[in-house]
Amino acid sequence: MYIKVKVTAGARKESLEKISDDHFEVVVKEKAERNMANKRVLELIADFYGLPIGKVKLVSGHHSPGKILDVNNDRADSGSRPE
Questions:
Q1: 3-state SS, one letter per residue, for the chain
Q2: pLDDT of 4-61, one tens digit each?
Q3: What does the pLDDT look like over 20-35, one tens digit per residue?
Q4: What span, in angstroms and rounded, lies between the C-alpha atoms of 45 and 4?
Q5: Distance between terminal CA atoms of the chain?
Q6: pTM of the model
Q7: How many CB atoms lie within 10 A of CB 37?
Q8: How far, in Å, CA of 80 to CA of 76, rounded?
Q9: Separation of alpha carbons 58 and 27, rounded Å
Q10: Cβ–Cβ under 8 Å, residues 19 and 3
């Protein structure tokens, strides 16, 4: 599932607010340098959905505050597979 995220980087206090089913506003302490803020956003979204960070990918918006993330919360691939 794709979600839209508006990010504010370099704040004193972190927050994550769910605006709608597919839209979040995230405030992070990390600066928008060396991909630090993007990594923290991925961590916060993964934690919100209870997923490992590898299940959340940045699709677009690498250099802008508006981002689109792909959240793979498909529970079917977490079970055992038949051989």
A1: CEEEEEEECCCCCCEEEEEECCEEEEECCCCCCCCHHHHHHHHHHHHHHCCCHHHEEEEECCCCCEEEEEECCCHHHHCCCCC
A2: 999 999 999 999 999 999 999 999 999 999 999 999 999 999 999 999 999 999 999 9
A3: 999 999 999 999 999 9
A4: 11
A5: 28
A6: 0.84
A7: 23
A8: 9
A9: 16
A10: no
Give me the pLDDT at residue 78, please. Answer: 45
Residue 74 tokens read as: 């498909």
Which two three-digit tokens encode residue 82? 């038949």
Q: What are the structural domains, with CATH classification, of the chain?
A: 2-73 (3.30.1200.10)
